[in-house]
Amino acid sequence: MSPFAHEWASLLAVVTARISEAGMLLDANAGFLRLIEVPMPVPATCPVAGFFIQPDFSALLKMKVEAGAESVLVYAGLLTFGDYGGKTRTLKAHVWREEGVLHLLAEFDVAELEYLTDTVLDLNRSYAQAQTELSQTNFKLKQSTRQLEQSNAHLKAANIRLAQAQSQLLQAERLASIGLLSAGVAHEINNPIGFVNANLGTLKTYVGHFLELIAAYEAAEHFVGNTPIKWNSITVLKNRMDWPYMKDDVLPLLDESQEGLDRVKRIVRALNDFARTDAADVWQPEDIHQGIESTLSVFWSQIKHRCELRKEYGELPAVTCVLSKLNQVFLNLLQNAAQSIEGQGVITIRTGCQSDEVWVEVADNGQGIVPTDLPHIFDPFFTTKPVGKGAGLGLAVSYGIVQQHHGRIEVKSEPGRGATFRVWLPVSPPTARS
Ligand SMILES: Nc1ncnc2c1ncn2[C@@H]1O[C@H](COP(=O)(O)OP(=O)(O)OP(=O)(O)O)[C@@H](O)[C@H]1O
Ligand SMILES: [Mg+2]
Q1: Is 328 near ligand 1, meaning CB less than 6 Å away?
Q2: Is 364 in the pocket of ligand 1 (CB under 6 A)?
Q3: Can you give the residue range of the structural domain that contains 43?
Q4: How remote is the CA of residue 337 from the centroid of ligand 1, in Å?
Q5: Does residue 237 lie in a domain region?
């Protein structure tokens, strides 16, 4: 046995085999078994003649060999084998023949194999690289898609904010010009109201005196007796003017006029609030919740029998403001909410804080506001309420006060689904001016 017998047996690139002339495999190494795709170890009986394709097995037996002669090289060259799977392989082979046995020694073309392996490895490497690049590109693509989506969302939000700001600006401009007009009108009305009011006061005193005087004359009537001096004409005059009625009516008339004037004065004050022409206010850090609570204490008893109140207060810092004016805003919003509710309903007051602003929300589940009314609700004198119930000044005044605080009012409403008014206020307004 050759000293390399064991190594030969395990070699894969080298093919050795002993095959009987009948074509049965007598012995073979791993390389041969791999060639014909038969697993180790060598099977006991295994016909292999059929695997020799070019030259075929019978061609190798053609040369005559003397009995007892040395082994003879019967073939040297390329030998093509088939396997059970129908694949063929061509190897460089030598075949010797000696008494009844063929010895086969062949080799896979190592250089070719290495080249193929290298090529496959190269291909594999570039495939792996391409795959890495592809996944990197994919990753980048995903990232940029995500970024694109994010900037898209930002853009959309910015667009919405822009549209809101634009409509607020338009609204603010419109209301500012109405404010100027209101201020002018209020100023013009203020003067005549002032002197009519003063005159009315004086007139009331005078009329009081007149009445007293006439009563004195009347008391003296019976002393005059039937003296013919123009007495008849006085009686005729008294009857014509319905003196008893007039005497009773003159003071109530004056009172009523004074009441009317008071109402005009209130409206002028509201217009002034809206136009922000009021004199110095005291600005100081205040507790907004305390303001809401004090407003509720005067207002809530009027409507508690038909409205449920819910409070969802957040944490609020002290806000620099004129609290008495903000209380007027809260009162107007609460009044509107209560008036929008027919029968029973719910009013919810929410508060919260976001960066350097606080917000107060008054929400109701009342009748809501129709979209065509929404652009007008802050206009002075815009009202949908019956005569005597609303002057259309509550929101206009609130708007003016909130503007003065450098804040804003947002409204959300759908007919039949209530309304939500949210007042935003900076914690420290830039200039606490009146
Ligand atoms: N919470 C609300 N629900 C439904 N509509 C509302 C609400 N708040 C305001 N409105 C609408 O806005 C209009 C204007 O409100 P605003 O407070 O300025 O005036 P008003 O309530 O009619 O009268 P005033 O407040 O002067 O008594 C109201 O007439 C109403 O149509
Ligand atoms: Mg109102």
Answers
A1: no
A2: yes
A3: 5-108
A4: 8
A5: yes
Q: Residue with the nearest Cα to atom 9 of ligand 1?
A: 336
Tell me the residue type at 407: G
Both 165 and 256 in one domain: the answer is yes
Tokens 């209101």, residue?
182
Average pLDDT, the chain: 85
Residue 262 located in a structural domain? yes
Distance (Å) from CA 165 to ligand 1 centroid: 23
Cβ(270) to ligand 1 under 6 A? no
Give the pLDDT mean for 142-171. 85
Q: State which ligand 1 atom lies nearest to the alpha carbon of 373.
A: 31
In sequence order, the 6+-apart residues with CB closer than 8 A to the CB of 23 are 47, 48, 49, 50, 57
pLDDT in tens, 230-281: 667 778 888 888 888 988 988 898 898 888 888 888 778 777 766 654 556 7
CB of 362 shorter than 6 A to ligand 1: no
Q: Mean pLDDT throughout 16-42?
A: 88
Name the residue of 336, 348, 384 to mutate for ligand 1: max ligand atoms within 8 A of Cβ.
336
Distance from the alpha carbon of residue 374 to the mean position of ligand 1, in angstroms: 10
pTM assigned to the model: 0.53
Other beta carbons within 10 angstroms of residue 123's beta carbon come to: 10
Q: Count other Cβ atoms within 10 Å, centred on residue 414.
A: 11
CA of 384 to the centre of ligand 2 (A): 10
- Indicate if 259 and 301 belong to the same structural domain: no
Question: Looking at the structure, do residues 270 and 363 belong to the same domain, yes or no?
Answer: no
State the pLDDT at residue 277.
47
Do 293 and 409 lie in one domain? The reply is yes
**Ligand 1 center–CA 379 separation, angstroms:** 10
What total of structural domains would you count in the chain?
A: 3
The residue contributing the CA closest to ligand 1 atom 28 is 383
Cβ-based burial of 193 (10 A; exposed 0-12, middle 13-18, buried ≥19):
middle
Spacing, Cα 309 to ligand 2 middle (Å): 18
Q: Which CATH number goes with the domain that contains 313?
A: 3.30.565.10
List the one residue out of 72, 27, 28, 35 whose CA is nearest residue 53: 35
Closest CA to 324 of 278, 364, 359, 389: 278
Q: Give the closest residue to 57 by CA, choosing from 1, 7, 95, 106.
A: 95
> E strands along 203-335, which residues?
284-286, 307-312, 319-321
In a domain, 319, yes or no: yes
Backbone phi and psi for residue 39, each to the nearest 5 degrees, phi listed first? -70, 160
Name the one residue in this structure whose structure tokens are 């495999």.
25
Q: Which amino acid is at 85?
A: G
